[in-house]
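Suppose a colleague, Dr. K., hands you the sequence of a protein chain of 397 amino acids and asks what its three-dimensional shape might be. Before reaching for any lab equipment, you can write down a predicted structure in token form. Begin with the sequence itself:
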Amino acid sequence: MAKCPELIVVGGGLAGLLLAAHAGERFRDLLNITVIERALPKAPEASLDTRATALSRGSKELLESWGFWAELSAAAKAIENIHVSRKSRFGSALLQDDATQNKPMGWVVENALLQAALLTRCEATGVDVIEGHEVVDFTATSDRPALTLDDGRHLVADLVIISDGAESLLRTQLGIGAERHAPSQFAIAFNCETDGADTGIAYERFTNEGPVAFLPLPGSDDNKLRYNVIWCAHQATQSRLLALDDQCFIDELQAMVGWRAGRITKIGRRAGWPLSVVVSRELVRSRCLLLGNSAHTLHPVAGQGFNLSVRDVDRLIALLADELQTESPFDSVARLSNFERASVSDHEQTIAVTTLLSALFDTPQSLIDSMSSAALAAIDIFAPIRRGVANFGMGRR
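The predicted structure, expressed as tokens, is then:
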């Protein structure tokens, strides 16, 4: 019997684990799959220290069709509508799907739960997850890529999925460049509790320094209303805000977002980072494909980064299915490039829209300032525009 091809996924983040879990179930007897991850994050002890991911309607439908949704649905918080507003300016919009659909626009799932579910799937399908080690040597110039781990293990792959993050070392070693847009905005991520009503509404508020997003989270053990928050601001503001004590930080946040989500009563641990946009110039080189943040790191406005990766996984699974029907799987760059061709339009559109949204309100120019407020009002008034924006957020392309 011919030996099964070896698929190695470098990077055990959500995108890498999703691909490995789905491929493990779909091609259980056709592929040997290995995931290499230096350090899987541990589940937080406090509910206000969790991190979360927004899943669009389209991503949920894909996960459901793959049989992944059942274990997530009970702990996923539905986003019924999205309220978009501008601080200290007129114009706001309530984004919602066609009333006849009677379905949420998206869901929020805590990363620890999503990661645990994917790891369980990987284990159940025989995926070999190598945790606590990293690739120290990587060669893709011979017939098959070769990887050496820090414990001396030597692995040879028929196909390598590079999913080791925005600053991907393997991408650099392959000689693939990336376009980088220096950040004018810096993020602060945290969870908070409020005394507001649980309406299932997510809030996106644009300020003169960037957006502030409130994503509803599943209730805590004491049934407090929780939100996952991403606050984007300029570097000086971010540094000042991170240095504040909790109460002073809450006061500034409340003044920034208003009272639609209720009174903010408590916040969790804050984390900050620069919001660079990094886009790989290639997705395919030799027997290597790029996935997740290694391929595209987006601004978090509209929460499209992981949803784009979910669609990439769908395209990659189709490519794997085609390749496994050939006599020599993964030996043709021309065939592997079908993934890149299938992805280009989706990538370009998603990156362009999120980059535009992040920059549109980040300007002191009075003309653009007035136009952006008018644009929000137009979205709210004109149903076709509102549906188009909602469809983008739900992952419909």
